[in-house]
Design a protein that fits this description.
Elements (H helix, E strand, L loop, with lengths): L3 E7 L10 H11 L3 E3 L2 E2 L4 H4 L6 E2 L4 H10 L3 E2 L1 E7 L3 H18 L3 E5 L9 H22 L2 E4 L9 H8 L7 E6 H7 L4 H8 L3 E6 L4 H7 L19 H8 L5 E6 L4 H17 L2
Helix pairs in contact: 3-4, 4-5, 6-8
């Protein structure tokens, strides 16, 4: 096995518990996580302001995030900087600040996706807009040496070919893939493991998201993604197949757990640690 896996947790795991960023980091550390993937946003968001939500303001001093994490012995592995690539006026300033924040706290990855296409926009216009966004963002990523990783979550990235088309709009070593195991499964258009095989050379980050049998039966083929999944190992994703594809890649890969509850985050960490240890 050549890949070096780092297990992290996306801070969405405390959303259902109405926890703040500070409390979420404390809880993640208590569960045994060493890395987190914070969500970041611009503006002063009400629920975060009153400590009911985990997202982190990019108006704050970037080193405040590091200070909060350092106090709990946790590192920032990546940032959930999801911004609409098809809407440059929103995505460019938000991703610019997310990349700078990531570099300030020692994180190597900022994750995003294409998000929603406006009805008035043609496919050609959508890709032209995404080209412009990525062209501007790539220069920032290159300066700060932070990877911008695009994940399957929308109408174009629901197939591996569609995802690669967007990644390859800009020929750059700093535009890569964040493979979401749950979203690729729920899209239901192609075999998710064949899709991963197609994009594996560009996969530098993974959203480790499992999908419950109930959600699979009700939503597969009807959606292109979901915010969170169930605990890893308790759903339909074949994790051995996923690692069979990723293992030969000779690089560090973050497996960032995306689940909906604190208990699911705890169970996911146990499962992934045992899975990886058992394959060594």
């Amino acid at each position: 096995m050549s890949s070096k896996y780092t297990i992290a947790v996306n801070m969405e795991f405390v959303r259902s518990a109405d926890k703040s960023f500070v409390d979420g980091v404390k809880i993640a550390a208590g569960l045994g996580y060493k890395y987190v993937e914070p969500m970041v946003h611009t503006g002063w968001e009400l629920l975060s302001e009153v400590n009911y939500f985990h997202s982190f303001y990019m108006e704050e001093d970037p080193l405040l995030m590091k200070e909060i994490c350092d106090a709990q012995g946790i590192k920032v592995g990546s940032l959930s900087g999801h911004s609409p690539l098809m809407k440059p006026e929103a995505a460019i300033p938000r991703l610019t600040r997310a990349i700078v924040l990531a570099a300030s706290v020692g994180a190597k990855f900022v994750n995003t996706d294409e998000m929603v296409k406006s009805d008035w926009m043609t496919d050609e216009e959508a890709h032209q807009a995404m080209y412009y966004t990525l062209r501007k963002i790539e220069m920032v990523a290159r300066r700060h040496q932070v990877y911008v990783c695009i994940e399957p979550h929308g109408i174009y990235t629901k197939t591996a070919a569609g995802l690669l088309k967007i990644v390859n709009l800009i020929k750059s070593p700093w535009i890569k893939v964040n493979w979401d195991t749950g979203n690729s499964y729920l899209a239901g258009i192609e075999d998710p493991y064949e899709g991963l095989e197609m994009v594996k050379d560009d996969v530098y980050h993974v959203h480790a998201k499992d999908i419950s049998m109930e959600q699979s039966e009700s939503a597969r083929g009807k959606v292109t993604g979901t915010p969170v999944g169930c605990a890893c190992g308790q759903g339909v994703v074949d994790w051995n197949k996923v690692l069979d594809i990723l293992d030969p890649l000779d690089r560090e890969i973050i497996l960032s757990v995306e689940c909906g509850t604190i208990k699911q985050a705890e169970d996911s960490l146990t499962f992934l640690n045992e899975l990886i240890d058992g394959r060594r």
